[in-house]
Write a structure and sequence with these properties.
417 residues, alpha+beta, Jelly Rolls, Arc Repressor Mutant, subunit A, 3 domains, eight-stranded mixed β-sheet, 18 helices, 8 strands, 54% helix, AraC family transcriptional regulator, DNA-binding, Homeodomain-like_sf, transcription
Length: 417
């Protein structure tokens, strides 16, 4: 992809305060240019027929189709047979994701919204399900419209709080319908498309991401990744990271009382001064002013976050090679095992064991490609007691044995990246 892609703005409307979501009815009559979306969105197709690319994969849109687009995914309508008319909801993915996993998932079931929508971004609703979804969208439209015009009429804090709660519930209902009606096919192991780099970056912003790490993850050279990002977005690798982190920073300023220094550690900035500089350049407003102006929305929604959440994730990432046990981690951070898994499900889309194995398998993959160590030695180095345990978890995550992974990747010349 050589043409520059437009990056969608964080907010679609100019309002007196940040919105939980926006709602529009749109029509597309001709093919569009590619757009890289910084915010999540949902389309409900009501009329027409068209073909759309979502991260370079083609889907046919027609009446009854519902499309979930995650932050930092690319869409492009490539063919319009009949003009499509659809409801468009743009929302803050992180907030809805946290609400579902914290308040609507009391059993801490392992549930990855990001992974499921990535695997099946479009679903076809049968007549009854489509009608139910239409009702949800229309109810959401009415309430969002009232939110837009709230400044023009007298409204007390309780009324505004109830409206926020209603809108949040409707967003959750729509997300749950998307997940319930997804196709039941399993996603096979395949070569990762370069366009997935953006979503990977977005979901790992709390880490100190480097081009070297991306090179190993996507089996591309550092220069190739840098060039792809520049040609696609017009931004350098570091400018793109800052653009993504500012979106996250807005949410944390609204919904937490974390200091700028704490946010710097969580979101991967150098320090608090770095956040201030980048935030002011991007938004034209100081971070402290933004928080002071819009903090009351966080009070209405009662959304909270704590530094310990990120400390848990960081601790597992740094100590993966040790004999880590969930019970030990629970005692260390003063949380129950149930709450530990709930925290990790929100933060990294996995339970404790799932996240630990994910890190170990990723580290083992790097060692398989960059060293000549035996599989047993690699297993021991990443924290497993036996080669068999590594192989079992490797197959579960990579859908291939460690030996075949090493042979196939080296046969393609990947070890020289």
């Amino acid at each position: 992809m050589s043409d520059l892609i437009t990056i969608q703005n964080f907010c679609d409307r100019n309002t007196s305060e940040p919105m939980i979501c926006s709602f529009e009815t749109e029509t597309i009559s001709t093919p569009t240019s590619p757009i890289l979306h910084s915010m999540a969105r949902i389309w409900l197709i009501n009329e027409g027929e068209a073909a759309v690319l979502i991260n370079n994969k083609e889907y046919c849109l027609k009446k009854g189709c519902c499309v979930g687009i995650l932050p930092w995914q690319i869409t492009e309508v490539i063919e319009v047979k009949k003009p499509i008319t659809f409801y468009l909801v743009v929302y803050y993915y992180d907030n809805v994701n946290e609400i579902i996993k914290t308040f609507y998932n009391p059993g801490s079931i392992e549930m990855s919204i990001l992974h499921r929508i990535t695997a099946h971004p479009m679903i076809e609703l049968h007549d009854r399900a489509y009608q139910q979804m239409q009702i949800l969208f229309m109810q959401l439209e009415d309430e969002v419209h009232e939110m837009y015009t709230a400044d023009e009429v007298e409204e007390n804090e309780e009324d505004r709080a109830l409206r926020n709660l209603f809108i949040t519930n409707k967003l959750v209902e729509i997300m749950l319908v998307l997940m319930r009606y997804e196709k039941k096919t399993k996603k096979k192991w395949e070569t990762i498309d370069a366009s997935e780099i953006f979503l990977y970056l977005y979901s790992h912003l709390n880490e100190r991401i480097t081009l070297e790490q991306l090179s190993h993850k996507f089996y591309m050279s550092e220069s190739a990744i840098g060039t792809y990002i520049k040609k696609t977005t017009g931004l350098s690798f570091f400018d793109l990271i800052n653009e993504m982190r500012i979106g996250r920073t807005m949410n944390y300023l609204l919904y937490t009382d974390l200091t700028l220094e704490e946010l710097a550690e969580i979101l991967g900035f150098v320090d608090g001064a770095h956040i201030s500089k980048v935030f002011k350049a991007r938004t034209g407003m100081k971070a402290s002013e933004y928080r002071k102006t819009y903090q009351r929305i966080g009070d209405r929604c009662r959304i909270s976050d704590r530094k310990v959440y990120y400390e848990i994730v960081a601790y597992i990432y740094r100590h993966y090679a040790e004999d880590l046990k969930g019970s030990d981690l629970s005692r260390k951070f003063g949380v129950t095992m149930k709450n530990l898994n709930r925290i990790l499900l929100y933060q990294v889309e996995m339970t404790f064991h799932g996240y630990l194995n994910y890190i170990r398998v990723n580290k083992a993959s790097e060692l398989l490609l960059t060293t000549d160590k035996t599989i047993l030695d690699i297993a021991l180095e990443v924290g497993y007691n036996t080669e068999k345990t590594l192989s079992r978890n490797f197959i579960m995550i990579r859908h291939i044995t460690p030996g075949k992974f090493r042979t196939n990747m080296r046969f393609q010349g990947i070890e020289n990246i």
